[in-house]
Specification:
Pfam families: ABC_tran (PF00005). This is D-xylose transport system ATP-binding protein. InterPro entries: AAA+_ATPase (IPR003593), ABC_carbohydrate_import_ATPase (IPR050107), ABC_transporter-like_ATP-bd (IPR003439), P-loop_NTPase (IPR027417). Keywords: ATP-binding, Nucleotide-binding. Helices cover about 30% and strands about 25% of the residues. Helix 5 packs parallel to helix 6.
Length: about 290
Amino acid sequence: MTQAAHAAPDLAPPPTLEVRGGRKNFGAVHALRGVDLVARAGEVTALVGDNGAGKSTMIKCVAGIYPFDAGEVLFEGEATHISSPADANALGVEVVYQDLALCDNLDIVHNMFLGRELKKGFRLDESAMETRAAEVLASLSVRTVRSIRQHVASLSGGQRQTVAIARAVLWNSKLVILDEPTAALGVAQTEQVLQLVRRLADAGLAVVLVSHNMNDVFEVADSINVLYLGQTAAQVRTKDTSRTEVIELITSGSAGMAPGAVAPKISPDAPERATSATATTSDATTTNGSTSA
């Protein structure tokens, strides 16, 4: 058999983040009971699910706030263990939470470098920080900010979200997780933030977007991961599904299946296939105490 007859090797790079069978318990409460997630560079992966499905717990485990109790985490194809936020930051994982964690009494530059200030000797290197902040905002095509030296207290909700996202990508990030970035924004500000989310992916970053808004999800996401009662119901390509199917997955854990049916598990080679989602009666009873997500 000639060499040409052999199948060509798969040269596709591994996902930036892959979680397999992640579990997290808080005492008797099973918050995560087998979650799978694949986030690829250059793509937006939406993480959706009803309240209590495990979304917040999931992103906190990836961010190192809570360690997974069981399961595998692979980062760029390498098995890893994230036991602290410092571990996550070292890998290139940055999270923008709903509260944004911005200081109103500081300007944009100082907020972007908060806790990681650049120094020249014993003094802050204001010039270097200002230059880097301006470069990052320019690279994200942010043009709505009047001055990078204006205080955050004077910014609109959309501008605040922009500053928080820019801070996340300032540190050579590889994976950016956005927790409900448009939750409290108006129509114009929402569109501004969604355009920024898309630009992050177009710049080569892996983006995980946590959202309840199906319009936002279908506008910017390349794939959608649905959580149901602490389990992954499915991860599907956005172009291959519909709002109706996603909502059915969110509310029942299955789409187009008979009640009680179990969807096939995601395999590492086919991360977008549906996964087991329908809980047993005992599991559902236990999960009623899940932490809110």
